[in-house]
């Protein structure tokens, strides 16, 4: 049994966790303040008429999850895909109504994902078909303990050219608060994956391009995009 320990993360990576990872994969929308600001007046329109007060979650079902080196198909009805380079955490111990001060002890480690979607504007009622196509969640298969998950840099390259850089600092909900808020209304189970947020301004990429995402101290993820006809 491998025990991962650092100042914050003290969860146990057991054979059971290894067998269940990934469990349910959850994404968090609008955790980047710039993403909410970009909505402008739309954030105050019906049906909610205000910015969200709780985490806005969505699910990336199992068909979306692929490993490093995957060839992700760009649908025939999309000219490009929105890249979503992000930090994700894997739950190591059940988290139900955890306190913010204790939340990171329920994390087994961090990994790298690309939360891909077809570009779309609606976040109140986003169409499932935009986020849940086969292969739309490439995920690294390694876990890393991280002393401060709120102080990491995320970089993305397209065809060897750096196309995007963002930082986990400055999220509306830092990781511990995010886990506390989510576990206040649902239990996160060992093996579940939480994508902590995609930053505003992440680039588009097209079929034929190679994607590489790096989070120093966590890991790297590479995959390609292919046309659906060749997927």
Q: Could you walk me through the main structural features you see in this protein, from its secondary elements to its overall organization?
A:
There is one protein chain. With 231 residues, this protein is mainly β. It has one domain (2-40, 51-230): Fumarylacetoacetase-like, C-terminal domain (Fumarylacetoacetate hydrolase, domain 2), CATH 3.90.850. The chain contains 3 helices and 16 strands. The chain has helices spanning 15-20, 33-39, 175-183; strands spanning 2-3, 12-13, 25-29, 56-60, 65-66, 71-74, 81-82, 85-91, 107-114, 137-138, 153-158, 161-167, 193-195, 204-205, 210-215, 219-227. Strands 4-3-13-8-9 form a 5-stranded mixed beta sheet, with no helix packed on it. A 5-stranded mixed beta sheet has the order 6-16-15-11-12, with no helix packed on it. A hairpin with a 2-residue loop joins strand 11 and strand 12. The termini are far apart. Residues 1-16 have low confidence and may be disordered.
Give a topology summary.
Elements (H helix, E strand, L loop, with lengths): L1 E2 L8 E2 L1 H6 L4 E5 L3 H7 L16 E5 L4 E2 L4 E4 L6 E2 L2 E7 L15 E8 L22 E2 L14 E6 L2 E7 L7 H9 L9 E3 L8 E2 L4 E6 L3 E9 L4
Parallel strand pairs: 3-13, 5-10, 6-16
Antiparallel strand pairs: 1-2, 3-4, 7-14, 8-9, 8-13, 11-12, 11-15, 15-16
Keywords, separated by commas or semicolons:
10% helix; 3 helices; single chain; 31% strand; mainly beta; 231 residues; five-stranded mixed sheet; Fumarylacetoacetate hydrolase, domain 2
């Amino acid at each position: 049994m491998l025990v991962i320990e650092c100042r914050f993360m003290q969860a146990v990576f057991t054979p059971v966790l290894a067998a269940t990872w990934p469990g349910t994969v959850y994404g968090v929308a609008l955790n980047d303040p710039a993403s909410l600001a970009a909505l402008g007046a739309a954030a105050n329109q019906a049906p909610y008429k205000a910015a969200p007060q709780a985490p806005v979650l969505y699910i990336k079902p199992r068909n979306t999850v692929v490993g490093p080196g995957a060839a992700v198909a760009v649908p025939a009805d999309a000219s490009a895909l929105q890249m979503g380079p992000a930090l994700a955490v894997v739950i190591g111990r059940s988290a139900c109504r955890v306190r913010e001060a204790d939340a990171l002890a329920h994390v087994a480690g961090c990994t790298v994902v690309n939360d891909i979607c077809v570009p779309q504007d609606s976040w109140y009622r986003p169409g499932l078909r935009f986020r849940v196509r086969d292969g739309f969640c490439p995920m690294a298969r390694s876990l890393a303990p991280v002393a401060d998950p709120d102080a990491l840099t995320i970089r993305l390259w397209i065809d060897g050219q750096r196309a995007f850089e963002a930082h986990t600092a400055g999220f509306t909900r830092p990781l511990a608060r995010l886990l506390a808020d989510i576990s206040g209304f649902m239990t996160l189970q060992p093996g579940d994956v939480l994508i902590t947020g995609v930053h505003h301004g992440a680039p588009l990429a097209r079929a034929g391009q190679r994607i590489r995402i790096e989070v120093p101290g966590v890991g790297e993820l590479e995959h390609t995009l292919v046309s659906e006809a060749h997927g």
